[in-house]
Structures
1.
Amino acid sequence: MKETDGVIDAKVSYPNAEAWIKYDDQKVTVTKLREVINSTGFKAGKVKEDAHPAAVFKLPDLDGKQINSADLKGSIIVLDFWATWCSPCLAEIPTFNALHAKYATRGVKVIGIAVQSGWAKDIKPYRDKHKIAYATLIGDDEIVEKYGVLGFPTTYILDKDFRVHRKFTGKLPDRKELEREIESLLAAQ
């Protein structure tokens, strides 16, 4: 297979990839992985959602405080599902920090949900090392299932009524596109 889009480790970027593909060491090109995933009915990349309600949750933050999704209604939410072992996830932290810095005063909340990463004591060193400025919650298999997360990173943009506006699976588009999505929701308020 000719490599045209770079090689990724399917186990890291798409945890469920083993169920879809069986290659020697689970390495495929990005193009081939998208073909395999798309053949399952899942579309990799950006998905325009039909503004359906986002799943509710109650999860602890890194200090043990329970965060209830009902308390988030009224704000635009950028919800990032990530893992400490996911290098593409870690690479996106500066983008989320920038969004947090730019929009926090305008009613936009950036929230990271760390999954498959252990407990607070395991996640805090990553928060500190990468200078995560936004809220980080500890996710579990239930929240991953509720949101249909098939790979990491997965990012949702939720409107003020806690409905899904946009979903991104895998590497995010550039920050300007995310800002356009957020600005469109702010303008609609």
2.
Amino acid sequence: MSEAEFTEQDDERRDDPSQAAEPRRRILIVDDDPDFLVVAEAALAAHGFQVERASGGLRGVFLATQDVPDVILCDLRMPGIDGFVVAEALRADPATQHVAIFACTGRRDLEARAALNASAFDGVLVKPVDWDSAARLLREIVGLRRP
């Protein structure tokens, strides 16, 4: 087969919707802990997600509004603006108000749960995160929120 024939076959495959791979779902992780960012990115990428990282709340809001992700995982306690402010800012923006936002926290107390229930978060992932369970949950969420 000539190079031109290979190219034609490749073009035909790209044009055939049945040959197109399902798009990778995008997750933005917002956390000031660089170790958590590295572990979370590796774990979620291994489950087929495309991951972007933000090392703080302000950067997270900026990245989310520049290229809207499918899901946002956001730490609650960060210097500068905390996770509650991040979630409220994203809910106030028409471009990001529909995005699923999950708090990531090590707090397990009832006071923290009550604050989360009254907040702009869709759910919570408790640290240390079970990434296999989290990936299943996130797949379900993006399946419900995206066509």
3.
Amino acid sequence: MTTQEEREPGLSPLERAGTHVAARLSDEHLAEALRDELRSVGNWILGVLNAQPGWDLMKVDLKPQGGRTWLRITEHRADRAVPGTVGPIKPGSPILRRINRLQSLSYRPGRGTWLSTTITVSAEGWPEPSYSFTASHNFDDRPPVLGEEGPYQVGDALEHLEVFPRTEARVPEWLAEMAGEADLPVHVLPPDAEDEAAPAGTVNPRLREAVAGFSASPSEEAMIEVLRQCTAGNLIVDASGSDLVRGTDGQITPDSTIRLQSFAESDGTRSLAAYTAETEARAMFERSGQEGEAVLLRRPAVAVLELVAADEQYDHLVLDAGGASCRIPRRQIEWLLSSPRNDVAKNGLVLGSVPQVLSGMVGADSSLLLGVRALPEASGPQDVEPVWARPEEGQEADTLLLFTSAAEVAALDPTLEIRAAAARDVLRYALGTGAAHVCLNARPPVASFSMEDIREVLLSVEDGADEGPAGSGGQGQGLGDPSDPLNDPLNLSDGSPGAADPATIDPGDFSR
């Protein structure tokens, strides 16, 4: 059960929830503040570590729960992960203020903030190493048990939402179910709380959020998040200085000469510029000193990626230049575009349109992807198993995960291999696996369907679709069947990081 907060006159959603520092900072200054707090927490970790030299990574899980902040340290050395300290941070420790500030700075009105986080400290160059710090925030999943604090309970979650409220659409399903079982109300913000907090003319709020996250803590995971959000929604490009010829319907005709804003980088490369909000684009136009009015065009984000991939003059796509920004290298764009995608279903998820999601899942020309792992003692690419999800912690995994793009697979686990096939063939395969449900994508927004739903929607588009592939006797074929379209590994372009590790990113690719 959810209840919507009443608006107090003159107060924004953020002010009604309590004063968070993030409300008073620009995106650029906010990203800088987040980096400062992350650095402070990372340096504290280095100060309290008791480890022999030579380690590669220290992963520190942090979770506020029950009035305490719990910590778990895991040391990574070569191929070994060694468990370390687990327990609550001592009350009154100065670092608690830094952790609380990191959580508060990460708050977005309506979106919320992280429930738990993992700080990674990387060391390179022993015996006198240099250190770097990254953060992986968990906004939506039920926080894991770290030590003796016990499972994260509904009371912990509701206490979190009192300080960091969300819209109903942003309340995790597991939390809503727990509250419903306990007959407890979940207080939520009005649906427009996110829109009110976004800059005027924001055309892609989820991508904007991902770009801000990358700017605050550049990492492989943050880049993957940006890439997966680029597969839906729109972007703004600056076409000022173009010779535009419009037809009688007002649309730009092929007779136009379009010149798009781009930047010469200090390393001799060139970046095409695109923006998630009109205000950002106009601010950069004014900063350039050009005369006249800015000419801004709205284009699908995927179309902008395709433009960069098709035009060799561009080495990068820079998003939201001049503020909290992200520069995507060409090779990452080529990797994303080289694999099949299901943009119809992905956009349906973003829009919250179940009919559009289903339409994309059964379209005659649609594709779906699976993430797979090699079986023990695998002898070939056919010896793999798909990834599954558990409905709740401790229960048997009965939900087969399907994906709309390679970036969605990598967002779950960048070490997964990828299989892609015609969407209807993937759904037929799913019918034969014994799954109770399928879930489209593993990171929000997602959609889950029962196998009866899948059977019915297949029947609605083709006769006999519920019988599975020819010769299967009504059961979907296994991944190891030679005729199974999921049997062959996905071929990626030469410009990609490679099929074995599709999400590897050079530290040099990170730019703000």
4.
Amino acid sequence: MKQVDIINKEDLDKERFQVHYEVHSPGKVKRSSSFKRKGCPVVEVGSKLHRTTSDVGRVCDRGMANKENELTCSDDVRGMHYNDNCGLPVNSAEASKMAGASSKYSDFTELSKDHEAMTHVLFGRNLRLKVAQTLWRRNASELVAYLIRIQDTGVLLDCLPVLTNDLQTEAPCLSLGCCVDLMPQVKVILSSKYEEHIMVGLHWVQSVIRKWWPELSKNEKRLRDSRSEDRNIEVMKQRLKDLWKEGARLCLVPGSTGELAKAVEAYLAQLP
């Protein structure tokens, strides 16, 4: 029995050494230590350790552990390379795309600046149109004086269609004297490069001529001391003639603009 005990102790020491060298799982080590604390017979413990070490040898192999370590390290290295490549442009094509994107952003910045400027312009024009509407309801002569004072072509273009419609009524609010005062600004509109602006100006001139055509077509010399209406007729005749010295070119414009200019010229050709 003593010899058996010695052999088992030696085997036990060998097995303990092998378990300490080969087993990497903390769970398995705890099992061996738990057997030791129970104080079971040595032979039984040795047999159990043999079974335990045989199981461990089958499950955990040093070569397999090394392979797992290699795979884990290779995955980590690939992850590091991937993370490094994420922050850098892959090629020149991607760099050119990034440059194009930055240029698009600059374009949007310019557009926002343009929109801010346009918003500022429209805000100012809206305020002036509200003032013009108030003056128009109060007195037409006050509106004309306001338009002459501000010298804003955009506001005048917005107001001229209203004044044109008023001249086409039987009892217009706009007097001949007001039309005489507005003629220099309408002349500026007729020299515009925009056809829509020219059409607005021509419609107003045509309405003025039609409204006071009976007085304008008379071949009578009015004295200087005559009433103001007669003086305004003479001034209007002269201003219409001066206007058409530069406006005759409008008859060469194709389309509706040229047709309207020819209609105005047909009236002006009959002025005495």
